[in-house]
Structure formats: C-alpha cells, structure tokens
Amino acid sequence: MTQPDLPRDTAKKDPTHAIWNRVTMPGYETTDRGERELAAVLAVHHLVCNGGVGHAVTVLRQAQLSAAAEGAAYFGLTRLAASFDGMAQAQAFEDVYDFGRSGPLLNRLEEDYDAHTEGGRIHWALRRKLRASPEDFSSA
Known about the structure:
Blueprint: H1 15-23, H2 33-51, H3 53-59, H4 62-74, H5 78-91, H6 103-112, H7 115-132
Protein name: DUF4375 domain-containing protein
C-alpha cells in the first residue's frame, strides 16, 4: 500500500492541501459541494490504499461507494468513477468474499486500481476544480 498522499506540512503552500487535509478529518462536515464530493472520493481511496479494494468494499456501504463514484465524476475522473461504480456493484453481493460471485470483479478492480497514481490524479483534479469553481470550496 502507499504512504499518505499528501504530507500535512505542505498544506500551507497550496490551498488544495489544506482542503484535502480538512475533508479527511474525522467528523468533518460541510455544505460545500466540492468538499463533500472530495470527502466521498477520499473515503474510498484511503481505504483502498490501506487495505485494498476488497477491504473498502467490505467496510463501506453501497451508498458510500456510489457517492464516491458521483464525486469522482464531479472532478472529471471518469475511470475512477467507473472503478467506484464497480466496487458498488461488488458490494451489492451479500458476501463480497464469495469469489464465485464477486471474486472476478474484485480481482479486476484490485488490478486496475493503482492507489499511488489515483492519489495524484485526485489531487490534480482538485486543483483544476478549485480554479474553475472556487465557490464549491470553503476558503482555505
């Protein structure tokens, strides 16, 4: 698994780092669309980084995985959105570790998800969205 995507001491240099750190704080809630979408994406991304796709699918509810897919789409991350949709489909099975039913899907999703690369893409998309729609984020 990868190391944390963004070191906390870099938050002062780039507002996206502050946003990233803020939305990953336990219990953080916001009404800002961009931050809600980012929080949904990162909730899944960090679980995949720490335990793999199967872990994320087991721990999260289908609604959380679907919200992450919507969040990824909001940021223009279509491949990531498709990956999260696939995780939601896998989670729809009663027992995600019944590999006769969901194993091939989970295996494919695990192979396709490069956590380090996806972390970079998420950060890049956050920067782009912050420039295009700063009103969707709290002031950093």
